[in-house]
Amino acid sequence: MAIWLTLCGAIVVIAYLLGSFPTGYIAVKQLKGIDIREVGSGSTGATNVLRTLGKGPGAFVLVLDSLKGVLAIALVYWLFTFNPIQNYIPPTVDAKLWQPWLITLAGLAGILGHSKSIFLGFTGGKSVAISLGVLLAMSWQIGLATAGVFAVVVAISRIVSLSSISGAIAVPIFMVLSHQPLPYILFGIVGSLYVIFRHRSNIERLLAGTESKIGQNLTTEPEQTT
């Protein structure tokens, strides 16, 4: 049992490290030679990369950040299917019950890593793209439904933060309506609340009517991300 718990713990740590990989920071540093945390919103996520470098790099970072979430969950599936590891699964462990909980922990670890990257002094992005990747790996239907909510809201409002918050609110609703396992529902609640919390300064600007829309430059000072 000790070996099995160690393997599960290692998966969660690796998921955090995957989330911590600073895609946006590296992209902007390499292409423009600046620290993205010092421009725009101060976030290292795809939206701030879009504002700083344009659509191409922004889309590139969005895809890579989403893939970090997919890989974090793929590691859990691998742990339960890789034949050499099967010998270390205790007979008392029910994989059908254990796997959703480990997926939830790995997903949350990846989300935390993205916003609190160990490689950037525990700063980072707002965990939207990586959350989408986690959702797609958990349940591609819920992932696509969440992306659909985001797309509809952004098409109407042209405000990325509002679209991200709307998608976050929709996740636990989709989880409940589709009768997902309890761990996934808890992931939807905790993950969504965390993403919304990361957007608290955006919410203040939304209420004040000063939040930037797509195509506008962000005129506010870089927000505190620590």
Description:
The protein is built from eleven helices and no strands. It starts with a helix and ends in an 18-residue tail after the last helix. It has helices at residues 2-20, 23-32, 46-53, 55-81, 83-86, 95-115, 128-138, 140-157, 160-177, 182-198, 200-208. The radius of gyration is 18 Å and the shape is globular. The longest helix is centred in the first third of the chain and has 27 residues, at 55-81. Residues 219-226 have low confidence and may be disordered. It is mainly α and 226 residues long.
Could you tell me the number of beta strands?
0
| Tally of DSSP helical segments | 11
Beta content comes to under 5%
Rg of Cα set? 18 Å
- State the helical fraction: over 70%
Query: Are there runs of 5+ residues with pLDDT below 50, and where?
Result: 219-226
Helix and strand content put the structural class at: mainly alpha
- Report the biggest beta sheet as strand number plus sense, adding barrel if it closes: none
What gap, in angstroms, lies between the N and C termini?
37 Å
- The rough form would be described as globular
